[in-house]
Design a protein that fits this description.
Blueprint (H helix, E strand, L loop, with lengths): L1 E4 L3 E4 L4 E9 L1 H4 L9 E2 L10 H19 L9 E5 L6 H7 L6 E4 L5 H14 L5 E8 L1 H8 L15 E2 L2 E8 L1 H5 L6 E7 L14 H20 L8 E4 L3 H14 L8 E3 H4 L3 H4 L5 E2 L1 H17 L5 E5 L1 E3 L3 H5 L6 E3 L1 E5 L5
Parallel strand pairs: 3-4, 5-6, 5-7, 8-13, 11-12, 11-14
Antiparallel strand pairs: 1-2, 2-10, 3-9, 3-10, 7-9, 10-17, 14-17, 15-16
Helix pairs in contact: 2-3, 7-8
């Protein structure tokens, strides 16, 4: 059922299926190039709540409710929930999802959390430990800025290398083939995964996350291609999560030094979600929600409609905290890779 490859990859002979997904985003995301593809665009970024943190929790709650509704399933049909966010103690997830009463694994992989949650959820299904799981991820611009950088009232200027934390949350419902057959045609299948390593190039600039995360993305992509004995051309797209324009340039150069050219197949969710020229988002988008909502609204649609047969989805994360930054520590990176294929692909 599950075959181990290389030092950190798995190939699923009986692949889990993504049977439904839902995305909920804020106003800025709704004004971007993908705005019409999201399931819900908030009227404002408060989402009817009193605090930014409560607003982020509502993103997860609404995304899960919508994903379950699309599949005509109830919370009790789901065996395990894998969820994470950027806030301390993952409070957006715990407070947002507590009323579903689904057994839960709380995760933190910084902005790579969507890859981590999808990988663990699919591994659990493929290993026969569950017949249905949920993977959920969110971020919120205001709650992240308050925790990691400056209060919004400070109105600090941002360098061009900085990325804009996406306000958004997405949920993915995974199941076995048998369960999927009772729901309808799946959106896609998860055929394998590669787990990331922590990579630290000693970068200390918290306003240049692309540079901090690109080395980890390079390590993940190269190891994945080696483990699966594939070339970049075997993928319609290799999609990173939130490197932005600065990180994308670095990644392509680093991977080329390792003997692979991904320039013709690489795309980045952080570049795709905003119009950098008109929206003032610097190098692009970032945050747990960036990769999650872009996969949910755009890439899964491309796969389900037959435009893509196979993508390598690589959310990227910067493993820092306010404490580590204030103590002068560097910003290590991590990335997790998930192979997502059309249901006809074998």
């Amino acid at each position: 059922m599950v075959k181990q490859l290389g030092s950190g990859s798995l190939c699923f002979s009986e692949a889990p299926f993504i049977v439904s997904t839902a995305s909920v985003v804020g106003t800025k995301e709704g004004e971007g190039p993908l705005g019409k593809l999201f399931d819900v665009v908030g009227e404002d970024d408060n989402f009817g709540q009193q605090t930014w943190e409560e607003a982020e929790s509502s993103l997860q709650k609404d995304a899960v409710t919508l994903a379950l509704g699309k599949a005509h399933r109830r919370p009790e049909d789901v065996r395990y929930l894998f969820a994470g966010d950027l806030l301390g103690q993952t409070i957006a997830s715990s407070f947002g999802l507590k009323n579903f009463e689904i057994p839960m694994f709380g995760l933190y992989g910084a902005c790579s959390t969507c890859g981590e949650s999808l990988g663990l959820a699919s591994m659990t299904v493929a290993a026969g430990c569950a017949d249905m799981t949920l993977a959920v991820t969110s971020s919120h611009f205001a709650s992240a800025e308050k925790q990691f950088r400056f209060p919004l009232e400070y109105a600090n200027q941002r360098p061009l290398s900085a990325t804009w934390t996406v306000t958004g949350g997405a949920a993915f419902l995974l199941s076995t083939r048998e369960k999927a057959a009772s729901i309808g045609k799946p959106l896609a299948r998860i055929a394998g995964m590669t787990t990331g390593k922590i990579v630290d190039y000693g970068i200390k600039d918290s306003m240049n996350m692309g540079a901090a995360m690109a080395p980890a993305a390079c390590d993940l992509i190269v190891r994945h291609l080696q483990d699966f004995e594939r070339q970049p051309e075997d993928y319609d797209r290799i999609v990173t999560g939130d490197l932005g324009t600065v990180g994308q340039e670095i990644l392509i150069k680093l991977v080329k030094e390792k003997g692979y050219d991904i320039s013709h197949v690489h795309e980045d969710c952080g570049i795709k979600i905003y119009n950098g020229e008109t929206q003032g988002t610097g190098a692009g988008g970032s945050g747990c929600g960036c990769a999650a909502v872009t996969l949910s609204a755009h890439y899964l649609k491309q796969i389900s409609e037959g435009n893509f047969k196979r993508i390598l989805f690589v959310p990227t994360g910067a493993l820092m905290s306010p404490t580590s930054f204030n103590e002068g520590q560097s910003v290590p990176g991590i990335a997790h890779g998930v192979v997502i294929e059309s249901v006809e692909e074998r």
